Amino acid sequence: MNCTSNRLPYSATGYFSKIITDYLQQHPDLAPFYRHSPDFNGIEVAIRERQLFQQQRPVLVQALEAQYANVNSSQAVKNNIQLLAEKDTFTITTAHQPVIFTGTLFFIYKILHVIKLTEACKQRWPQYNFVPVFYMGSEDADLDELGSIWLNNEKITWDTRQTGAVGRMKTTGLQKIIARIEGELSVQQHGPELLQLLKDCYQQQADIQSATLQLVDTLFNRYGLVVLIPDHPQLKQLMAPVFEDDLFNQTASQIAARTIERLGKHYKVQAHPRAINLFYLKGDIRERIEKNGDHWEVVGKNIRFTREDLLLELKQHPERFSPNVILRGLFQETVLPNIAFVGGGGELAYWLELKGIFEHYKVPYPVLLVRNSFLIVEKKWQEKIKHLGFCAEDFFKPAQTLLSTLVTRGRADVLQLEQELEEVKKFYGQLKEKAGKIDSTLEKHIEALRAKATRPLYELEKKMLRAEKRKYNDQSRQLQAIKSALFPMNSLQERIENFMPFYARWGDAFINSLYQHSLTTEQVFVILYEDRIVSPSPAKS
């Protein structure tokens, strides 16, 4: 069996939605909902459009300098922050919430994707500068999602009663999780250094967003990755006109509703707008703002504003207004000189709802790229897969399908009744021809007889296969074990597993290997075998 290929189309995996597979195939139904093709031609057009946009670069640089004031980052990061002040510098961005300990593997994958893409763009257009950016969704308040990780099939949850934006939460209590995982990670070759990194980030930093900034910076600063925490008064001030329009005119929701109506004719809608797409963010509060009569209220809190009060609050404290998913992308593209956004299937699905909002506010719409995906196949599973005569890509199929393939391999002459079924069909075909010459109405009767005769043969074939499968108990258990390891909880590995067990085993070689095998605009799924895990490259200054 040929197992030389380590890439396959997203559509062949069975794990990506129709809207994403259609987007990658440039289906005409989606053409009205994005602006640029997901390739270098699209990026070139996005650069030209971004050059025409009035960017408030000094505000961005000042905010980043303040955020990095107490971070011992690399010279590459410091240089990139300064380059953002120049008109010929552009960013390529991915975004994620500050989930504890990075959450799942795709957190790492999307960051490396933007790093690899910025390097490719620099080679293609050396007259420009390109900066990879991780935009931290620090204002997300979904602690159920951001406060848990899976480790060795066990869900580990942060026990805290804090509320509000997760990025602002204190790191208190996370030391218990570090202590909980220390036993199983410390025995690995690179476990001690990983645990020290976690302690440095989560026990020495005051809040989650600062800890996440330090963790991401430590892992990726040699590549010049810049982390932006948008929870900043000066950055929010740049969005004040849009926030005001949303509070008093609800323009964005009206535009998004029209787009969703059109998009929903062909696809499942990802995000629905509210009349007001802003949260009130203060202290441990992050709750929706709703209009009630001639007042505006913070849902679930005893906080009310008149129109004049709300205008004054926005003017004096823009940082207290937090955009939801409908306005978040517009905020990102307003503060960053961005040309491309790398995101998962769910993220890109809601970005396809937002093009009209960008056009209304005259903000450049970026190229949308589906983030890289990997299936990491450890050596022990690679050997078992080979022993069974399969390739890793075969395991995207259901385990029962694989077992059927294994059982019938070399036994098709016994287990499959194709010849017998063909003979039955031929026999009734001849009867149908003869009967039709006498009376054409008899043809339907012959067809019914054919169906009645072949149905027991199909059932017999299934019973024979089931009986043969019972002889393959050991192989069935092996298939199930491999399937569970590569696709935990019947999901993609990258959507469940955390990076820590891999890093504890391989150290920086794990990050470097993902970097080496990361793609740019190819938009295919990558299978990465352990024997392709490479040694770390020299650190970049």
Provide keyphrases for this structure.
alpha/beta; 15 strands; 541 residues; 5-stranded antiparallel β-sheet; 5-stranded parallel β-sheet
Instruction: State the major sheet.
Output: 5 strands, parallel
Strand arrangement in the largest pleated sheet:
6-3-2-12-13
Q: Which structural category do the helix and sheet elements fall into?
A: alpha/beta
Please provide the count of β strands.
15
Report helical residue fraction. Answer: 40-55%
* Net shape: globular
Count, helices: 24
Low-confidence runs: none
What would you report as the Rg, rounded to the nearest angstrom? 28 Å
* Averaged pLDDT: 91
Give the end-to-end Cα distance, rounded to a whole number of Å: 45 Å
Strand content: 5-15%
What does this structure look like?
- The structure is a single chain.
- The chain has 541 residues and is an alpha/beta fold.
- The chain has helices at 18-24, 40-51, 57-67, 75-83, 106-124, 143-146, 174-186, 191-202, 208-220, 233-238, 240-249, 251-263, 307-316, 325-335, 345-351, 355-361, 379-387, 399-408, 412-415, 418-438, 442-469, 473-486, 500-506, 508-517, and strands at residues 7-8, 89-96, 129-136, 148-151, 154-157, 226-228, 278-282, 285-292, 295-298, 304-305, 321-323, 338-343, 367-370, 373-377, 525-529.
- The protein has 24 helices and 15 strands.
- It starts with 6 loop residues before the first strand and ends in a 12-residue tail after the last strand.
- It has a 5-stranded parallel beta sheet. Strands 10-9-8-7-11 form a 5-stranded antiparallel beta sheet. The chain has a 3-stranded mixed beta sheet with strand order 1-15-14.
- The chain is globular, with a radius of gyration of 28 Å.
